[in-house]
Amino acid sequence: MRKYLRNLIIFLALPLITGILLDVFISTNLKKSLTFAADEIPVWNDIYNGRINSDIIINGSSRALVHFDADKMSRELNTSVYNIGDDGNNFDIQGLRCKVLLKYNRQPKVIIQSIDLAMFNKINYMFMPTQILPYMLWDWDMMQVCKHKSPYDAADFVIPFKRYYGQHDVLRNAISIFRHRRPEHVARIKGYRATDGTWEQDLAAEKVKMANFKFGIDSDMVKNFDQFIIDCRRRNIKLIFVNTPEYIGGRTLVKNRAEIMSVFKSLVTKYRIPFFDYSNHPISYNQKYFYNTVHLNRGGSQYFTQNFIDTLKKTRVLDSLLAR
């Protein structure tokens, strides 16, 4: 009987140990890449390894990612700034990033939240899902947010190697990194990624394609955002909302824009949050600063960042926020 139990334990333990070893090997090597998963890995590494520890955090979607030059802000505001903007994802993933950041890093004094029209649009998939692959195993915070987002389910966060099974490109990437470690271009500086290029969108075609298009406003996500604000206030983390520039020619593409903006404005009023709205700023009327209706190119982001820095200095809104 003892021999049978011993053999059974070995039979069950071998696949588990093998899975754990493979999981560790793949995850460790993916974490070494600067470019895997659209440059998101270095930011997750900085978050999980406690390397951010900045006074000001920029949070939001791709509009945060490509609009706020954190290094420039650090130099001119004489304080530490880091941009954790996450490409393509709404507030559930943005909120997750903040939660993990607060778990492993020194608490920031200020979070600048970049708002956008898709922020409360509930979706059952994750944009660029490979970005969380190296961090998923037994991460319960991440599991609660992402377990129902395609292509993952709860088992992917619990069973070693399961999430990698069949991911041939990911496996080849990990092996290539292990065998041939080569210098990679650093795409993000303190989380900010400048995007070169000029206007690339056919606006007339977009207006036809997006006729009567509306973003959803999920009530649970609004409640989660409201709770995020409450949690920041409890921690004495000050918030600033920014609606960064969006090209005026595309302003009518989202038919319920006014309704979505009213949600943000109600929260601004309710919690007395400083709010900087660039909807009607001159930059929003000049196509040369954009590569599409909602994203600034490198020149546009530099112009915007400098203007935002000047506005912060002029309004002295950071004087009380950082003075503690």
Overview of this structure, please?
With 324 residues, the protein is α/β, with parallel strands linked by helices. It has one domain: SGNH hydrolase (Rossmann fold), CATH 3.40.50. It contains 12 helices and 7 strands. The strands form 2 sheets. Strands 2-1-3-4-5 form a 5-stranded parallel beta sheet. A two-stranded antiparallel ribbon has the order 6-7. α1 crosses α7 and α4 (70-77) packs parallel to α11 (298-315). The chain is globular and about 80 Å long.
Instruction: Kindly identify the CATH topology.
Output: Rossmann fold
Please estimate the helix content: 40-55%
Q: What's the helix count?
A: 12
Would you list the SSEs in sequence order as H and E?
Answer: HHEHHEHEHHHHEHEEEHH
Share of β-strand residues: 5-15%
Low-confidence stretches: none
Q: How many domains comprise the coordinates?
A: 1
CATH homologous superfamily placement? SGNH hydrolase
| Distance between the ends | 67 Å
Question: How big is the Rg?
Answer: 22 Å
CATH architecture: 3-Layer(aba) Sandwich
Helix/strand-derived class? alpha/beta
Summed over residues and divided by their number, the pLDDT gives a mean of 92
The coarse silhouette is globular
**Biggest sheet architecture:** 5 strands, parallel
Number of strands: 7
CATH class: Alpha Beta
Strand line-up in the sheet with most strands: 2-1-3-4-5
